[in-house]
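Lab meeting, action items carried over

1. Structure of the two-component assembly. Owner: GW. Status: complete.
Input record:
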Amino acid sequence: MDLGISALSYVNSIKNDEFTVEEFISKSLERINQVDEKLHAFLRVNDLVIKNAREIDTKIKSNQNVGKCYGMPISVKDNICIEGSKTTCASKVLENFVAPYTSTVISKLNSEDAIIIGKTNLDEFAMGLSTEFSAYGPSRNPWNTDYVPGGSSGGSGVSVSANECIASLGSDTGGSIRNPASFCSVVGLKPTYGLVSRYGLVSYANSIEQIGPLTKTVEDSAFLLNIISGIDSNDNTTVDNKNQDYLNNIDAGISGKKIGIVTEMTNSEGLSTDVLNATNDAVKTFEKLGANCEQVSLQMIPYTVAAYYTITSTEAGSNLARYDNIRYGYEFDSSGFEFNSYISQARSKLGPEVIRRMILGGFVPSAGHAGKYFLKALKVKSKLIAEINHVFEKFDFLISSTVPIQPFKFGEKIQDPVSLMMVDFNTVTANLTGIPAISVPYKITNGLPIGIQIMANCLEEHSLLQAAYALEKTVDLPKVPV
Amino acid sequence: MKNLVNEEEISEVAKLMKIDLADHNDHIKRVQKMLEYFDILDNAGVESEEITVQETDLDKLRDDKYNPYDKNLLKFLKSYQGKYVKAPKLN
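Predicted assembly:
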């Protein structure tokens, strides 16, 4: 039995009776036991998976209706709530928090008979891009365990890449799905803002974050998007996608399509030569497939990282105010404490990066500073949206590397906050503008992955996945060495 | 010459956010560096730009009606009495 199969192959194998759900789930658990001590993709593994697998096997054997997932093991980032189980956001503050309700995406997966195999590691409250800020220790890159797996959905990326599960759900605020997808050589999709319900996702920066899939293939991302997308009365920002089938005609090709190569993302200061070469190579591949590629400049791009951190810190400062030990948090008795010092005590359980973002989030929108920081960041965002709208009048897609660099070693960047922020340079544009973006595994150089990012206009996931599929079909990458 | 945001200003905001800084200097220095980088926003030339906001028509919002929530959320709190949450004393 090959644990590295795609979701679609898994479904076919189950339908053809090649193995049972229980057999596959048992093997996946064995795999987790075998590799996860080293990789630390999971914060918790679900105790009930074998029971769930047997129930689905029974349904299959007795010819009852079975959901589209046929019991496939899916991991979930630990900032997405499942009723009755822990959701820690990789923070000590929520160490014992048991979610009182289930997120919409999980309800949808459950109704299609997916098996949630466990909750995956992340940077605390999804603030980071390496999992080094997880309060429970980092995850490791299965391609080379001396290197970071990317983040913040690092555990999700690792769990899919190392064949500990078939697919995963992550969240993407500034690249948190695409960055680990690129670093771990899996597919990662950040959908259009509003295409997937955020009900039950622990808030970090509500105005730009999205839930999306990390998968082994582009088709699998389309398959999962079919399940998790759509309007939800519990999230007023969701849009009606009329039950669009993203798998339909995914092999349509991209002949005649116009692709813009984002100039500012291909000549940025921090871009590595190997990554630039891979990007140029991907452009040539698209041209061979019949697309027309040309350079396009978006003048706001150099300011996007600063705008992104300003806006997200502001929203985080507000969202994290609830971890005051009264509503949520590390519980201890309030008697004998004065109000402010009690709340300060509770906040002392937050990790260093979260503390810094809260301070930033208090500073940049404050009276006397908002004009210089927060309002200016919102203006950059508005102008960037206008630029993107203009560019998509002419182009179907935009292309860049997903990340300007390859995975880096643990500790290499953590001391330098600015170089850490610059890792997000190519990914934040999609979040600030709400457009969808996908990372496709493209190359392994020096034993480490490089992903290519394709962006499309809002709600153009269908054509975006067609472009990603076309690119994916041209590459043949080695198997993960773990 | 760059104008660094002074440490006292950052400390004051931290205090207002009810954050007690144990390793005070390290945090302040890092926040200062991040703010220094944000100065790049001054070069964006967006002063005259309008801020656009996402608008949602009222008829697209869910009906304004009471949906009873049957789960007892109070039991998730460690510190409560009857239907009141216990909080520390406000001076």
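2. GW to write a short summary for the group page. Key points so far: The mean pLDDT of chain B is 83. Residues 74 and 81 of chain B are 9 Å apart (CA to CA).
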